[in-house]
Amino acid sequence: MIEGHCLCGAVTIRAEKAPGWVGACHCRMCQRWSGGLFLCFPGEGVTVEGPVTRFASSSFAERAFCSVCGSHLWMRDLDSPDGAYELMPGLFDEAADWTLYSEVYADCAMASIDLTGAERRATRTEYEARKPHVEGGVT
User: Fold this and answer.
1) Contact in structure between 102 and 86 (CB atoms under 8 Å)
2) pLDDT of 19-36, one tens digit each?
3) In this structure, which of 12, 25, 34, 139 has its CB flanked by the most CB atoms within 10 Å?
4) Distance (Å, whole) CA 93 – CA 139
5) Gap between the Cα atoms of 56 and 29, Å rounded
6) pLDDT tens for each residue of 59-96
7) 48 forms bridges with which residues in the sheet?
8) What secondary structure letter does DSSP report for 82?
9) What is the pTM of this model?
10) 10 CB contacts (<8 Å, ≥6 apart)?
11) What is the spatial distance between Cα 34 and Cα 88, in angstroms, rounded to a whole number?
């Protein structure tokens, strides 16, 4: 069992099973929704508590977000037999160590998504020394 929550904590999601890996989607719809790259993992035995707004993003799928803070929560393929949840890994502390398992629409990826280049990088400590943004040590 893993448990995660949105940015404000109003929504809590629990999944009885999680695969321990993350998938990525680069389709244009996911780019618009996520701002660039949609990361997700399939959760099983999902329960949700809190204020959720659902949006029918296509004829077969819904996307959901916290009604309070707007954090993205999941995408669901409503045509699948079990209405599988594709959960946002950033909601779950356990997902920090999971590896990327697959990418779809890889040919549609935004040029800025290739994070293996020589771009400027800063560690958390380096960045927050210039601009602290996490109050009270909450991560």
Assistant:
1) no
2) 999 988 888 888 999 999
3) 25
4) 9
5) 12
6) 888 999 999 999 999 999 887 777 789 999 999 999 99
7) 13
8) T
9) 0.81
10) 50, 51, 66, 67, 68, 69
11) 10
